[in-house]
Amino acid sequence: MSIERFRCFFTPICDGCETELPAEESFMDAVEAKRRAGWKTSRDEGGEWVDLCPECAKAESMSK
Ligand SMILES: [Zn+2]
Questions:
Q1: Could you tell me the distance, in angstroms and rounded to a whole number, from the CA of residue 35 to the centre of ligand 1?
Q2: Is the pLDDT assigned to residue 27 strictly greater than 70?
Q3: What pTM was estimated for this model as a whole?
Q4: 60 C-alpha to center of ligand 1: Å?
């Protein structure tokens, strides 16, 4: 899962390029912020959550 917890803030970070969204005060707000920004969340082969910004999601969908 790639929402980093920093003190009392949650910051979505892209697993592709490490772009960050502004910190949110709750996990749910961070999830909502990702959705609003068009980020894509999926699980990799190992069951780990992977968050991708729109740019990386586009690159990934083209590579498949
Ligand atoms: Zn990215």
A1: 14
A2: yes
A3: 0.77
A4: 10
